[in-house]
Each structure stands twice: as structure tokens, then as C-alpha cells.
């Protein structure tokens, strides 16, 4: 490297130090610098895996790529909150089935709030605020097209620790062929994942229609098809006033119930107004709030506790079997 071009020389020249005097000194500095920079470079290159391990990033390999992709991508993309404290998985017994509510012991007073048709520009944020104040985690069934328009709001839902479910791309009701149904669901799953890092395992059919091709595709894809056991009526064409919305929810509250509410698909200011009172009323009845995967997990655990006991009894009663 000719000294005339060396930035260090240029820098020192400004202080009137001649090239001649500097030559040996510069050589040492240059060598030291090159050695230093390259060793840092090499150690960075070689240390990538160590760094990944420190950061908790696991690079997907071969077959495991499919399962670890979600976590790896969350860790790689700093803006996405890793879904570590969110339980999105659905117990195997519910995959590919249609669920209206969880069957729990009557004294297990849990209930799941679900919000459909968002994310919306105004009401979703208001709902998030109310849920945060009450320390409640809920489940949001999002429309793919809305996620595309309001990605920041979708991100906020995930960042707040709520579970996101698939509510199709267009919210169509009509009968559709396999390819259309697949596209409606797959595109939505894709944009939810790319936007929030959440992998959807729950599907809710628009309008609750189970026979237009969507639910069939979702079941084949091992989604839990989530219906509801009670609704406020907030999405009806002539939806009731706030006190009636609250009353509707409180009246039919029971253990394992799934409540249908809306944060999108129109002006949902009534739902937003009713929500704090619904929550207060349910709390007063002794309910606590869980997400859909948590609710299903509770039923699975209750059931496995029963089946774990029964074979012993069966063997005892029928020793020949
Ligand atoms: Zn809907």
C-alpha cells in the first residue's frame, strides 16, 4: 500500500509529520491494524454459531426446519416478539376437529374471549388497551386482508401476548372449490406468520359456515376449527345496545365457554364500550380468562387424568383382557 494513499499517513501529515520519518512506524501500525481487523473478522465468522447459541437462535436443519422455523424467524427478526410465552399449539385430540366450547368441570371457572374480523384501525387498539388493564389474554381471529392493511396493529396484538387465529383472507361466505379455500386460508396463515411471527393453529369460519369448503380444508390441514358457545350479538345487522350486549354474555357464561366478540368488520364502538362491563361481570361471577389453546389444553389434561386412572380399574375388573 503506497504511503501517499494511506489514510493514516494523510491523517498524520495534517500534523506535519513527514513520510520519511513515519515509514517504519507506519509499517508497524499497518501490520498491527490488518492483523487486528482480520482476527476480529475471522473470529466473528467462526463464532457465528456460538453467537447464535448465545442469542438462542437455532438455525433450521433439514426436516426439523418446518418445526423450528417459527422460533428461528422470530429470533432473527428483532421487531417480532418471539412467541416464547405464548402457547399456540393445540392438543392433538383437537386438531382437525370442530370445537364449540371446552368441556370442563363446572367448578373450573375459565372462559375464553375471542375477537373476530380485525385487526382494525381503531377498535382493535381500544380492545387491547382494555385487555391490558385487566391483565387478560384473548384470541384474535384475523382476516388476512386486514393484516395486510394494518400490520402494526397485528404486531401489537402478538406483542401483547394474545393468540392469533386464521379467519381467511376475504371473509367470504359462498361455496368455494378446494383451490380457493386453500388460498383463503394459506395466504392468511402466511401473512400472519410474516407479520407477527405467530403460527396459526386455529381456524374460525367466516359467519360460522361449516359447509362451504373452508372448514373442510382447515380440518384436513389439522387446524382446530373454532366455533363459539355464546355471543354478544355485536355483529348483528341491528346489534343490541351496550347493556344488552353485556347481558347476553353474562347470562350464558359457563365453564369452558367461548365468547364471540368483534374488533373489526365495521364500527365496533359498542363492543368496545361493553367490554369492560362484560369483564367486570364475569370476574364477579368468579371467572378467569384464558386463550383458546389454554382452554383446550385444560380439557385435554382433565381427560388424560381420567384415562390415566381408567385402565387400572379396567385391568382390575377384567383380568383376562
Ligand atoms: Zn368474521
From TrEMBL:
The keyword Ribosomal protein does not apply. Pfam families: Polysacc_deac_1. Residues 109-290 form the NodB homology domain. The keyword Membrane applies. Its EC number is 3.5.1.41. It comes from the Bacteria. GO terms for cellular component: membrane. One of its GO terms (molecular function) is metal ion binding. CDD domains: CE4_NodB_like_6s_7s. The chain crosses the membrane at residues 25-46. InterPro entries: Glyco_hydro/deAcase_b/a-brl, NODB_dom, Polysacc_deacetylase_ArnD. Keywords: Hydrolase, Membrane, Metal-binding, Transmembrane, Transmembrane helix. Gene3D superfamilies: Glycoside hydrolase/deacetylase (3.20.20.370). GO terms for biological process: carbohydrate metabolic process. This is Polysaccharide deacetylase. It comes from Nostoc punctiforme (strain ATCC 29133 / PCC 73102). The lineage of its organism: Bacteria, Bacillati, Cyanobacteriota, Cyanophyceae, Nostocales.
Amino acid at each position: 500500500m503506497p504511503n501517499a494513499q494511506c489514510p493514516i499517513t494523510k491523517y498524520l501529515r495534517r500534523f506535519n509529520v513527514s513520510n520519511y520519518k513515519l515509514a517504519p512506524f507506519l509499517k508497524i501500525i499497518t501490520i498491527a491494524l490488518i492483523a487486528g481487523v482480520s482476527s476480529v473478522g475471522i473470529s466473528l465468522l467462526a463464532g457465528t454459531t456460538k453467537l447464535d447459541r448465545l442469542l438462542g437462535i437455532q438455525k433450521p436443519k433439514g426436516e426439523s426446519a418446518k418445526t423450528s422455523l417459527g422460533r428461528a424467524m422470530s429470533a432473527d427478526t428483532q421487531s417480532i416478539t418471539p412467541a416464547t410465552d405464548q402457547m399456540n399449539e393445540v392438543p392433538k385430540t383437537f386438531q382437525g376437529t370442530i370445537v364449540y366450547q371446552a368441556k370442563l368441570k363446572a367448578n373450573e371457572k375459565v372462559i375464553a374471549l375471542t375477537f373476530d374480523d380485525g385487526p382494525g384501525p381503531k377498535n382493535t387498539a381500544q380492545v387491547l388497551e382494555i385487555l391490558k388493564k385487566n391483565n387478560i389474554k384473548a384470541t384474535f381471529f384475523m382476516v388476512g386482508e386486514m393484516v395486510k392493511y394494518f400490520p402494526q396493529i397485528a404486531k401489537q396484538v402478538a406483542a401483547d401476548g394474545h393468540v392469533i387465529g386464521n379467519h381467511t383472507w376475504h371473509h367470504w361466505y359462498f361455496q368455494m372449490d378446494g383451490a380457493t379455500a386453500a388460498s383463503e386460508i394459506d395466504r392468511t396463515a402466511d401473512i400472519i406468520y410474516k407479520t407477527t411471527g405467530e403460527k396459526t393453529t386455529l381456524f374460525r369460519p367466516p359467519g360460522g359456515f361449516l359447509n362451504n369448503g373452508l372448514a373442510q380444508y382447515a380440518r384436513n390441514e389439522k387446524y382446530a376449527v373454532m366455533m363459539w358457545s355464546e355471543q354478544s350479538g355485536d355483529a348483528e345487522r341491528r346489534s343490541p345496545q351496550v347493556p344488552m350486549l353485556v347481558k347476553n354474555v353474562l347470562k350464558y357464561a359457563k365453564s369452558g365457554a367461548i365468547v364471540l366478540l368483534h374488533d373489526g368488520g365495521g364500527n365496533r364502538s359498542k363492543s368496545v364500550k361493553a367490554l369492560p362491563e362484560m369483564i367486570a361481570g364475569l370476574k364477579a361471577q368468579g371467572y378467569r380468562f384464558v386463550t383458546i389453546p389454554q382452554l383446550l389444553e385444560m380439557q385435554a389434561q382433565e381427560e388424560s387424568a381420567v384415562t390415566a386412572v381408567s385402565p387400572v380399574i379396567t385391568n382390575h375388573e377384567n383380568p383376562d383382557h
